[in-house]
Amino acid sequence: MNLEKMMELPGAMAAFTYTDKGELQSHVLREGTELTPQVLDLLARSCVANLAIASMEARGWEAVTGQGGFQPLKGFSVVGLEWSVVVNGNCGVIVKNRDADYEAAFNALQTV
Amino acid sequence: MHIVKQLMAIPGVIAAGEYAYRGDRFSFQGALTDEFARMASILCRANTLSVNMQSEIFDSFAENCGCRPVQGWIVHGANVTVCTVGNYFAFIENREELLNDVMTIMRAKVGDIHEDLLANLYAKLGGDTKEALY
Q: Number of folded domains in chain B?
């Protein structure tokens, strides 16, 4: 995983990888950010949970409605007050909302 | 222009709507049946409350870390993306720049979501929703 490349995304404050269980594996924090490894660790765990829930919902939605196009999921994002976390697979990036390019972030997460 | 109407004017937006109360009071435009829109509203409300709960936990670890209150969330599917801001949702196709445009419009039109998320969701009941809730 090339976290330095993720940090080149517009407004990137942090990039991180995590295990399938949500344990923080590696991270890069922008100097001066108030985020801490402890927050990233908690965030990683919530990301695993949210991705699992979103996958379940996508699968159920497709089965119930007959509509396609959701699976396989390509990522999940939570938009906070000042920043957003964008995750897919075992990697995530936190970007400032005012600079956020969600499409670039999702695309970057496909290639790491 | 109302946010849902504005979103539906953008090519690639499949459906957009607004939900309230428990997710079973909703309005929408686009390519969803009433029943699917009802399901989508309930699903969006459940996810919104879930990520808000998570942000409160983050806040207890690192106060004012910039996450709380949650403004919305995005599920990025293979060809379709669902995005929500506050109590509005949009189903959109995965087209270049569409997600960024939709998120920019939704954030600008809905404005910052404040701490009283539940009161907002219940607002359409009328009366003093805070008193009813708390």
A: 1
Question: Cβ(B19)–Cβ(B45) under 8 Å?
Answer: yes
Q: Quickly tell me which residue has 């990137």 as its tokens.
A: A12
In a domain, B134, yes or no: no
Catalogue all structural domains in chain A, each as residue range(s) with its CATH number: 3-111 (3.30.450.30)
Q: Quick count: other Cβ atoms within 10 Å of Cβ B126?
A: 8
At residue A40's C-alpha, the angle toward residues A39 and A44, to 5°, is: 120
Assign residue B13 the CATH number of its domain.
3.30.450.30
Q: What is the ipTM of this complex?
A: 0.96
Q: Judge: B100–A103 Cβ closer than 8 Å, yes or no.
A: yes
Closest Cα to residue B25, out of B122, B95, B132?
Answer: B122
A98, closest residue in chain B (CA to CA): B104
Interface test with A, best of B76, B82, B97 (most A CBs within 10 A): B76
Return per-residue pLDDT of chain A as tens, 112 residues.
699 999 999 999 999 999 999 999 999 999 999 899 999 999 999 999 999 999 999 999 999 999 999 999 999 999 999 999 999 999 999 999 999 999 999 999 997 6
Tell if the CB–CB gap between A80 and B112 is shorter than 8 Å.
no
